[in-house]
Description:
By secondary structure, this protein is an alpha/beta fold. It is built from 8 helices and 6 strands; from the N terminus they run H-H-E-H-H-H-E-H-E-H-E-E-E-H. It has a single domain, classed as Uracil-DNA Glycosylase, subunit E (3-Layer(aba) Sandwich), CATH 3.40.470.
Amino acid sequence: MQRIQNLRDAREAAGHSQLGVRFLYGPRESLNVPNGNVILGINPGGEQDLSDRLWTAKTAYYSETWTSSDYQLFVRVFMQSVFTFGGSSNWQLSWDRSVTSNLFPFRSRGVSDLSSAELSSFIKFGRGLWKDIFQEIRPRLIVTFGGPTRDAMLFIANQLCWSTELLRSYPANQRNTSAELFAFSGPVGEGRMLLAPHYAHGHGARGADVLREMALDIAPFAAL
Length: 224
């Protein structure tokens, strides 16, 4: 977390405008005592509350409302299904125990609001950050949303020498896009990566049958 604060302070000192930072979308304990689940978006967007928050008491996807888009609802319903299919009697508690965050923690109203130099810098930072985190927490289930997060996850897997195999794809709500399920062999054995398009702007995998299939396919790898 000090790395995040250091970069934020350096950018502020250099005169870059700041919308704040947001790191964990759940309790600090999810990172300190990891259960092996990781859920990552791209970056925290604009909210009414722009205070710096490095963690929250409960998982923000179900305990807060911070967007007028329906993507927060889709992620919440999907992860609820994953934990329920996995056998959880309290899906919210299972989610609170899971690391939930973003590829990079620096706010913008959207990726398109960042300059190409800013976006490249933030993605590079996120790759390094999560590579180091994964070496410590040793995930078994990883779910990502958004193209930049997908690409970064495959880059990190390669850097960590994880063996990956594409198992199947699921149709998404935009032409020529899909969610992809990978098997990977990491430090705790076989795991699963679901790399999905972002739900913002009407995108993402939205069909009820597709959502159920994705949830069922990854539920056996979800820690509760």
